[in-house]
Structures are given as C-alpha cells and as structure tokens.
Amino acid sequence: MLETLTPQPQDKILQLIAMYRDDPRTTKIDLGVGVYKDATGLTPVMRAVKAAEKKLWEVETTKTYTGLAGEPAFNAALVGMILGDGFADRAASVATPGGTGAIRQALELIRMATPAAKVWLSAPTWPNHPSIIKYLGMPMAEYRYFDTATSGIDFAGLMADLDGVAAGDAVLLHGCCHNPTGANLDAGQWDQVIAVLQRKGAVPFVDLAYQGFGDGLEEDAAATRKIAAAFPEVLIAASCSKNFGIYRERTGILIALTSPERKAVVQGNLNFLNRQNYSFPPDHGARVVTMILEDAALTADWKAELEEVRQNMLGLRKQLADELRRATNSDRFDFVATHRGMFSRLGLSEAQVNRLREDHGIYMVGDSRINIAGLNARTVPILAAAIAQVI
Question: Residue 138 forms beta bridges with which residues?
Fold first, then answer.
C-alpha cells in the first residue's frame, strides 16, 4: 500500500523556516513565519493567558471529554466577541483545532450541503485555502484582489469578477488584515461587495484570523458583523492563535449563521462533521479563552496587551515606510504604513527576494510577503538598507 505514495510538494513557508534555522549567520532576520514576535524575537505568553492557566490548574477537576461541539460557554463567548449581540438564535457553532480546523470543517459543510458549489478565493490568498479545497476536490475560482502596481486593492477587477459568482457559490472573504497582502477593503467597498453578493445569491465565508491586529478588536469585527446582518446564511472561521497568542493550543471556532428554524439541523451537521474528523475538539485553549472573556479583570488586561501588540506593529509599519522612503529616495513603499495586520507584500521580484536572503540573511516568502512583527526598531533600518541595495 504505502509504496504507491509519491512525495508531496513542500510547504514554502516551512521550507523557509528550515533554511533560516540552518543559516549560521548571527545577523539573519526571519520575516517569513506568521507568528507575532516582540522586540526580543520572542512570541510571549500573554499576561491574561498566564493568569487564566494558573486559575484553571487550581479549579479544574476532570480531563474527561468535552462535547462534540466543544464547551457551550466557549462557543457563546466567541460568538459574542466576533458578532456582538443579536445573533445567538441564528448561530450554530463548533470548537475546532485552530482556525485551519474551522476552515476545513466549513469546506466540508459546503461540500456536504451543496457538492456543486464553487468556492471563490481572493488572488492572492493564504496558500492553505486553495490547498485544502484542491485536496477535497471542490470546484474553485479566483477573484482579483491585489493590484501589484499600487500595492493596493484592484477593486474594479474584484467587483467585475464577483459579478460572475453563481447563486449558492461560497465566497471566501478575509474579515480583516488580509493575508498575504495587508491591503484591506474600506467600509464603502465592503458595502459594495455585500451588495453584489446579495444580488448574486452567494454565501459569504469569512476567514477571521487576526481580529484585534488591525484597527482594534471591535473595528476588525465590523465587516464580519455587517455581513452577518445582511445575509440569511454566513460561514465564519475564526482563530484564537494570534489575538490570544495561543498558537500551539489550536483553538478556533466555526460559526454557521442560518435561520432560527434551521439552527438545530445545522448544529447537528456540524457536530456530525466534528465526530467524523476528530470527535471532540481540544479544550485547554478554549477554556483559557472562556475564562478570560468571562472575567472582567482578565478581559481588560487581555485587551490592553492586545492593543500593545497592535500598536507595536503599527509603529513598525510607520518606521519601515519612513526608512524605505529615506533609503530609496522615493514613496514607492509608503503603502506599508497604510496596510494592516502582520503582513505586507513589498512588490519585490523573486530574484530580489533571493538576493536579500543570500546576501543579507533576510528571509521572506518568495512573493515578498513579510511578517511585520518579525522586525524590531534595530532591524528595520537594516531591512530598508538591504532593500535599497537589491532594487
């Protein structure tokens, strides 16, 4: 049996991690891996997470299974954090192993409900989106999103492509902090996207992996809430990896909005999919998140530290844009300061990216996507000077 297997293509980011690890240069800079890092290069455990874990250790009395959908308190807390009030009677939900698990379960639900439904993705998008869809054998299409000439959004192309969506198709939208570009729709553009998807009879599928990393916890949920209010059916895959800093705890949620009358049936199908995949979702991270969101003091401390993280990335963006303007004597990279979230695509060629790695020990994805949080005040001028040399 196993002798029939063939090698699978390696993940480019995992390859980059291995190359960085094997590089002996002490001056090397890692801008590839998508995790938040502080000024010392550490991905810290947030204060509120530490406090909740200590409390959990003291009060937890069992390690028995949770429910198929996860603990109801976690699901309710995340639905509230993401959507606010007014959606509980429409929201079926299941806890998942991270945001990736939520995306996979959402795609499984789409395939089970409407096998012919096409899933539309922004060009570009997170590479795992098309990878999972292709593995599941689902129909897939792209809509234009990023304008490489301006490093902004090709909104005319986006709207033209979404006009080709068929009724019942699922359109995957980045709720905030677009990965990999960092370029995001404004409120007026969101209104136009919602209008065309309503007219076409599409089902929005929101990937919300970075709530709190862009313009603020509430602000980053605004587009998702607007979508939730505008459509009878919406799928939302959300992650706690970034905003709670619990990457390895694999904590996420899939929310399926439907009518109150259909909620029980949809919930039963979500439970069924969990059972077929991993039975009961992991609970440690989910319980820590629940404890934070149910305790006013912990919530306040978590929000304060999350805001520190967000402001740090905004500061790095401004510093990098300023340094690149000085180093290149042009405004070519001013867009870095206007993008949001962890990532920006710099618009460098693959050859230039290779030169940055080989000559300067600066590691980024081949399409020139960088993780802003991989920088600090000391390394920003180093990156800017290196970019000025390779261009």
Answer: none
